[in-house]
Amino acid sequence: MNAAIRSPQPPLTRSVEDYLKSVFHLTSQGGFATTSDIAEMLEVAPPSVSGMMKRLSETGLIEHVPYRGVQLTPQGRRAALQMIRRHRILESYLTSKLGYDWGDVHVEAERLEHAVSEKLIERMADALGEPRYDPHGAPIPTAAGEIEEAELVRLAETAVGRSVMLQEVGDENPARLHYLAEQGLRPGVELTVVDRQPFNGPTIVRMADGTTRVVGQELALLLLCRPVDGA
Amino acid sequence: MNAAIRSPQPPLTRSVEDYLKSVFHLTSQGGFATTSDIAEMLEVAPPSVSGMMKRLSETGLIEHVPYRGVQLTPQGRRAALQMIRRHRILESYLTSKLGYDWGDVHVEAERLEHAVSEKLIERMADALGEPRYDPHGAPIPTAAGEIEEAELVRLAETAVGRSVMLQEVGDENPARLHYLAEQGLRPGVELTVVDRQPFNGPTIVRMADGTTRVVGQELALLLLCRPVDGA
DNA sequence: TTTGAAGATTAGGCTAGCCTAATACCCTGT
DNA sequence: ACAGGGTATTAGGCTAGCCTAATCTTCAAA
User: Is the pLDDT at B161 greater than 70, yes or no?
Assistant: First the structure.
């Protein structure tokens, strides 16, 4: 007698999965995802988004407030987290087991995440020892759909003098990631901010080995850090 | 001035990839693949096949003789073999590295083969040591597009008294594969045909360890064997 | 040589997703 | 209080792939 029972979950299409992921990322700081932000993220025209939002709200995956934006319903959030788990497990697996560079995994995972079964993901997770972070330092949702929410601060906004642990690189661009790896700026390294130049200038950091790096603002905004208590 | 140069290979859709694979398999003994055979294999209606055949022959992937059937062009054959390589490498990888049962790999590979990159397939092949056969004993095309063509004979048609090597299991049905594995009927085992009952009855074989198996015709038709010279 | 059944194709329609052009809404600045 | 710009939505169209119903080919049997 109930729609959810009568129609036992028609599988989501690739497009739908992508839209849900976008909405999740765009609302991760709270608030609504706007049509144009989604359109830009998915590289489609805004009317395509409007149309899809209408369909998704009819199937109960999102909440759509016309002219305002959208948010995920609990059901939509569950689906989005499942996709993000798939994506991040895939990235981890490709990096650990198949020698992929952290700059190249995103594109590959982006296509595979729509094709892998739950079973395959869990086997990969198992082979990796249930990793909690992907190669970029992003937290991997659990199979049950829980995700760690850490309060991270951008390197670009860290006060001079502070010591931080570089936790996550919020970027997927292969060229930038390659450069960061060359500079030794990977998740897990400790940094001390020794200076920052004015007018959105670069941040200068000291690495654990005493060497320094000059990090331009564009990059420093992508480096998400956790304050370190010690000294 | 030439279409193949002007438009540098629009990537094939999933559907197209599936049609090409079907045509390859249906023409592997030579001759034409018919509309209804393709329709049955892909579980679509015959008119859908007619329509696709028209498109594929316009793009030069198949040769279509109306009311007769289709064959692959060299270009279509290349694409089909690439898909088959992907499929079989994936099956091998899932079996060897992720603990999949040989009955379960087909479905998983069927979906992944459309999503993996060439690079990923080659990394998997490399990690496996460039395998030549998949878990069912089917030959894996090389990256260059060459495939071994062995002359195999069905167990059901092997003369009583002959000794053979079970080379390939021409089936993907999980239940049948599971049963065959239980019986020890896997690629690589040696068998001697000791009897066959009349009226399409079962074939009785002796295994290397001296035990015997009674193999019904349905299964005996799927067991592809290579004659053994010795004794 | 004709005829009828089987199989192939054409005709016409549907959905998912995308697009552009036209219109509607919202809000801020005057 | 309202005009205008920016954003969202609606209108209308396109392609890939699928479907059913109708029509056409082929071929073998009478």
Answer: yes
Closest residue to D24 (CA to C1') is B67
Instruction: Give which of B17, B89, B112 to mutate to test A binding, by max A Cβ within 10 Å.
Output: B112
Closest residue (CA to C1') to nucleotide D10 in the complex: A47
Write the DSSP string, B205-229.
EEETTS-EEEE-HHHHTTEEEEE--
pTM exceeding 0.90:
yes
Strands A223-227 and A190-196: unpaired
* Beta-carbon separation of A123 and B115 below 8 A: no
Cβ of B215: how many Cβ atoms within 10 Å?
A: 23
Locate B217 and state its tokens: 């015709």
Angle at A126 between CA A121 and CA A129, to 5 degrees: 130
Q: Residue B11: which residues within 8 A CB-CB, separation 6 or more?
A: none
What span, in angstroms and rounded, lies between the C-alpha atoms of A177 and A193? 21
B71, B100, B133: which is closest to A123 by C-alpha?
B100
Provide the H-helix boundaries in chain A: 3-6, 14-26, 35-42, 46-58, 74-98, 105-112, 118-128, 174-182, 217-220
Q: Percentage of residues in chain A with pLDDT exceeding 90? A: 91
**Predicted confidence band at B1 (pLDDT cuts at 50, 70, 90)?**
very low
Copy the structure tokens of residue B93.
């990888």
Dihedrals phi, psi of B196, to nearest 5 degrees: -145, 130
Confidence of residue B6 (pLDDT cuts 50, 70, 90): very low
- A13 strand D contact, CB < 7 Å: no
Q: Which helix (H) or strand (E) holds A65?
A: strand A62-65
Residue A210 backbone zone (phi > 0: left; psi -120 to 50: alpha; other: beta): left
The Cα–Cα gap between B127 and A207 comes to: 35
Closest Cβ–Cβ partner in B111, B114, B123 for A98: B123
Is B119's Cβ below 8 Å from some Cβ in A? yes
Find and list the nucleotides of strand C having atoms within 7 Å of a protein beta carbon.
7-12, 16-22, 25-26
Buried b or exposed e, range A4-40, using 16+ CB within 10 angstroms? eeeeeeeebeeebbbbbbbbbebbeeeebbbbebbbe
From the list B112, B115, B127, which residue is nearest A98 (CB)?
B127
